[in-house]
Design a protein that fits this description.
Strand order of the largest sheet: 3-10-9-8-7-6-5-4
Helix content: 40-55%
Mean pLDDT: 92
Shape: globular
Structural class: alpha/beta
Order of helices and strands: HHHEEEHEHEHEHHHHHEHEHEHEH
Distance between the termini: 45 Å
Oligomer: single chain
CATH architecture: Alpha-Beta Barrel
Low-confidence stretches: none
CATH topology: TIM Barrel
């Protein structure tokens, strides 16, 4: 496989190889995309403190996440429709994560089902849940995840209603794609993508089709969300999920310190500081700007994870320095999947791990546990 030096290189290849509707689904935010852009911009304003003549010969990126030994302090985040970036995308990404020694999280809105991934990988992975109006389905899918060996549940709490994504509407984004002349022409120029999808196990949402009453042929994400996601979702539902889920519970979508305190009080094992990749409340603060106050609010009561805008190992360092114990990597690995399938995911993981290692060396740090505010430069403004 061609050697890609950076995540940006993988992104550019994915943009050429994946049909526009699915690439834009991944690489866009809600409304004017202000928060989507801020996630990247605000990370870039945080400068690192270069140190010299420090012995960093014994450094390691190894760490723990929720008590699990990992090769680097990050996991692959839940991303919907991964299997439409490349055929069997969820399976390939999970395999790459396991081989790299980091966790993988399967989205409720995946193309490959929980059972597909479990059968193919034979190792535990994390599962992400959206709670819908049909609590019976939520209970059923949690049981399916438990039977499949999933040991950690990532509960997404910032999608009670769907933030509008203008590019999805313009592209007629459905699964499979709408039959539009523009879509047909675009897909016709992507033969490698067509081949991968044709050879994939599924062509629609594997966890939903045939399981949600009246939705046996789920194709349109926005329509399903509008009809099924529950605006009445509350902390009581978190208590209910905690009572029926036997594994670890991670609450994803926390930006406010008060919400973080409630999550800790209810017994969550971890929270993810996240604005859903800038895909929900446009005008919300960037994830990195919210991180320090949230981390300070909960202290050592639970683990704080970070999600939003990571494209380099230096970004991971920034998040760890501001209070995160680990990170979730989303778009960065899916660019790799769209660019080159499983080897592309493996390369994305390798890039981030290597960049983190070099950043540690140049800031005088040997262990992940030693990363703190001291690695940040004080810039006179």
């Amino acid at each position: 496989m061609k050697t890609y030096p950076s995540i940006e290189d993988l992104r550019q290849v994915a943009r050429r190889r994946v049909p526009r509707a699915f690439y834009d689904y991944l690489d866009s935010g809600s409304y004017n995309e202000e928060t989507f852009q801020a996630n990247r911009v605000d990370l870039g304003t945080i400068k690192l403190r270069q140190r010299v003549l420090v012995d960093v010969s014994a450094r390691s990126t190894a760490s723990t996440i929720l008590g699990e030994q990992v090769a680097a302090p990050f996991a692959l985040a839940p991303i919907g429709l991964t299997g439409m970036q490349h055929g069997d995308g969820e399976i390939l990404a999970c395999e790459a994560a396991h081989e790299a020694g980091i966790p993988y999280t399967l989205s409720t809105m995946s193309i490959c089902s929980i059972e597909d991934v479990a059968e193919a990988t034979k190792k535990p992975f994390w599962f992400q849940l959206y709670v819908i109006r049909d609590r019976g389905f939520s209970k059923e899918i949690l049981e399916r995840a438990r039977k499949a060996g999933c040991n950690t549940l990532v509960l997404t709490v910032d999608l009670q209603v769907l933030g509008q994504r203008h590019r999805d509407i313009r592209n007629g984004m459905t699964v499979p794609p709408q039959i539009r002349l523009s879509n047909i022409v675009d897909i016709a120029t992507k033969p490698a993508w067509i081949w991968s999808i044709l050879n994939g196990r599924r062509k629609t949402f594997g966890n939903l089709a045939g399981h949600v009453k009246g939705m046996e042929n789920v194709t349109q994400l926005s329509a399903w969300v509008a009809g099924q996601f529950d605006p009445a979702l509350s902390w009581k539902d978190v208590e209910w999920i905690k009572s029926i889920w036997p594994g670890k519970l991670v609450i994803k979508g926390i930006l406010d310190p008060e919400d973080a305190k409630i999550a800790a009080k209810l017994g969550a094992d971890a929270i993810v500081v996240s604005n859903h990749g800038g895909r929900q409340l446009d005008g919300a603060p960037s994830s990195i700007s919210a991180l320090p106050k949230v981390a300070q609010a909960v202290g050592a009561d639970l683990e704080v994870m970070f999600d939003g805008g990571i494209r380099t190992g230096a970004d991971i360092m920034r998040a760890l320095a501001l209070g995160a114990r680990s990170c979730l990597i989303g778009r960065a690995y899916v660019y790799g999947l769209g660019a080159a399938g499983k080897p592309g995911v493996a390369r994305a993981i390798e890039i981030l791990k290597k960049e983190l290692d070099v950043t540690m060396a140049l800031t005088g740090v040997n262990r992940i546990a030693d990363i703190g505010p001291q690695v940040l430069a004080e810039i006179d403004r």
